[in-house]
Amino acid sequence: MPIQEILPVLGILYIIAVFQALLIAFYLIFQKKGIAKSRVILALLLIDFAIFLTGTFLLLFFSNWRHIYYAHLANLSVFLAPPLLYFYYRSLIDQHFRLTKRSFIHVVPFAVIFSFMFYVIVFQLNHYFVFRPFGVFLIAALFIQSIFYLQRIFIEKKGAFTNGSATKSKWFGYLFGGIFFIFAFKLLIFIIWNVLGYVDICIFLTGMFFIFSFIMINMLVIYGLTNPDQLVNYFKYQSSSLPGDLKNKHFDDLLGLLSQQKLYLDPLLNLDKLARPLNISGKQLSQLINESAGNNFNDFINKYRIEEAQNLMKKDNKRQPNILEIAYQVGFNSKSTFNTAFKKFTNSTPSEYRRRIS
Fold first, then answer.
1. Which pTM value belongs to this model?
2. Torsion sign (Cα): 85, 91, 94, 98
3. Nearest 5°: phi and psi at 68?
4. How many CA atoms lie within 13 A of 129 on its CB side?
5. Structural domains in the chain plus CATH codes
6. Average pLDDT by consecutive 10-residue portion of the chain (358 residues)?
């Protein structure tokens, strides 16, 4: 299908994607919940996304040199994406992270290149300036900058998500992957258009760029609707007094307590009762289980109970206890609750599991 026939569709996708990006950005800026710096950084990243998407839109849909001037200047916003992504990453792994005056050093490459290009393009009206050889310099500078921030992220990534975290790591992985592919598309388009001069191929890739950008921003919208706390980087236990350096010790003590004394068999077990031998509060224990095990209290305890029930079913006794007896023995108050928890952890009912092992 000729690209001219799908240009209206690409234009609609562009409008929707930019509108959604800006809508989420303003929601994050004016939202009161969560960590302010994380919300603002993510909002700036989305606004940056909308700007360089607009630059590509102007190049594809307009032939007037004035619009092309604006397009090339808007495209320079890709230099802001790596540092913004890095800052957002830092805000996820460290709730004490702050943007300081020194943070503005990361904006210097963009500011220098933008000022230089603005002077040459707008005041000297040299619209060919963005092509070779300056285009090669831009690609090299962007590549070096990207490698620098990727290296910083991967160096700090090991063991970084310790504050709440499998979901936070998954969220950043999705965001990082989406931004990376959009960034790679943009870089490829820039090389083919500005450096190599292959316009036809570039138009096709630009269409793919709009489609992927539309998909990515809609996935972000869906994620934000289903996980609003994660979108605003909400630290549930930011006011907790549980010392970070003692978490591993407390968690090891908790595992030992459950393994040796089997407190999970108590049907009346609750957070406060389990926290007492550890000399911490119920709220601190909830934090400990959430952050160290990635589960809430009920799921954490029920996992032990289900494993105990499985062991009882595997025993070669003359008289096998029935399902209800097993449920009571391992700490459940009803057969229905036991069945629900058992299926959640084993993908089968207790009766199905027993038939399978026998």
1. 0.62
2. positive
3. -70, -35
4. 19
5. 3-231 (1.20.1070), 256-357 (1.10.10.60)
6. 66 86 88 76 90 82 72 85 88 76 89 87 68 73 86 69 54 76 75 68 74 81 72 56 69 88 90 89 83 82 92 75 89 90 90 85
